[in-house]
Design goal:
The structure holds 2 protein chains of 2 kinds.
Chain A lengths: L1 H22 L8 H13 L5 H9 L1 H23 L14 H23 L8 H18 L7 H24 L24 H23 L4
Chain B lengths: L1 H5 L1 H19 L3 H22 L23 H32 L13
Helix pairs in contact in B: 2-3, 3-4
Classes of the chains: A mainly alpha, B mainly alpha.
Chain lengths: 227, 119
């Protein structure tokens, strides 16, 4: 039975590979949808990064779902690990001098870099999710290097909720102002290719960045709980 | 040789997918199976990104005046892969958490030794 399933899976995979190699030649360029987005990004959203325009502008509702999935994960990790019985005592080796020194020096710089990435999401490669991941990596460095120091859970919850509420609030505000649909871009588009442009996109990415950073830090905190 | 040059991204992505599938189907350690899922996911992401590639294209960012829209790569697969990476991270975190829980409960990560599992 197991062999049969394995062979069936391999056959399906090979069929998929074959049809791709035959029907989609490499390097042919954007699809019809992509061409439309590229041609209209500037007039529709005002963001110079077309990927950000697609993620937050054209498919903003999809991104809200994505943020929700991440929230559910953070909640699931917390729920599964919080009820864990019989914790084992582990021996902990102290972090080396290099790690301890680097943690104090690099932690603020990592936070700054993460904030830079999510603030410039509409201008350069990056955005809320990437910036949040960089911020969480800064906190991971603290957990590894500065021994025994950890985040305050209520504060992380506050940041997480504030980020999520900012996203939903901006989306709901679009129902009453401007073109009256969820996540409509009601703020002025500003001057193209400057920091204050693209209307609601930077605001939403600030919310997403704070939320993702707080959530991933919460997951790290839960997983490092035993140590 | 030109086939290899033209399709190197497809070949790499399918290699990653097949490696991941192999690990999922053959390995018995739960952590290794989770890593296999992660590798398979990376392969799919590389494949989706390479679908939107254009010969001599630039990134889909209007950062300079002279860039024209018809020499840019497709932004849609990149946006979708951004979503897929985040969801993949969520799946990985939750799966590792469940693995920790399963190890505490069964005392082993070997899938063949976990008694209640039917296969």
């Amino acid at each position: 039975m197991r062999t049969f399933i394995v062979i069936l899976l391999l056959a399906v995979t090979c069929l998929g590979i074959y049809s791709v190699l035959v029907h989609i030649p490499f390097g042919t360029g954007p699809s019809e949808t992509g061409t439309h987005y590229l041609a209209n990004t500037r007039s529709d959203t005002g963001a110079s990064n077309a990927v950000t325009a697609v993620v937050v502008g054209y498919r903003g509702f999809d991104t809200l779902g994505e943020v929700t999935v991440l929230f559910l994960t953070a909640m699931g990790v917390g729920a599964v690990l919080a009820t864990l019985q019989n914790r084992e005592k582990r021996s902990i080796e102290k972090a080396s001098l290099i790690l301890t020194a680097a943690c104090r020096f690099l932690f603020p710089l990592t936070l700054l870099f993460g904030a830079y990435i999510f603030l410039h999401g509409h201008l350069t490669p990056g955005g809320g999710f990437q910036g949040g991941a960089v911020i969480a990596s800064g906190f991971l460095l603290v957990y590894l290097g500065c021994h025994g120091r950890r985040i305050s859970r209520p504060a992380s919850k506050v940041f997480e909720s504030a980020g999520g509420l900012l996203f939903v609030g901006i989306g709901l505000a679009g129902l009453y102002v401007g073109s009256r649909f969820f996540l409509s871009n009601f703020l002025p588009a500003g001057e193209f290719n400057t920091l204050l442009s693209a209307g609601i996109i930077p605001v939403i990415y600030i919310g997403v960045g704070i939320k993702v950073g707080a959530e991933l830090t919460g997951i790290i905190d839960r997983m490092m709980e035993d140590t | 040789m030109t086939f290899l040059q033209n399709y190197i991204y497809y070949i790499a992505s399918f290699g990653l997918v097949l490696t991941g599938l192999y690990i999922i189907m053959v390995k018995k350690n739960l952590i290794k199976v989770i890593l296999g899922i992660s590798i398979l996911e990376t392969g799919v992401n590389v494949f989706l990104i390479s679908l939107g590639y254009q010969e001599n294209g630039t990134a889909p960012i209007f950062s300079r005046i002279g860039l024209s829209a018809n020499r840019m790569t497709d932004p849609v697969p990149q946006a979708l892969v951004l979503t897929a990476i985040v969801i993949g991270l969520a799946v990985l975190a939750l799966a590792l958490t469940l693995a920790i829980r399963a190890y505490r409960y069964f005392g082993t990560l070997n899938l063949m030794k976990i008694k209640d599992q039917k296969w």
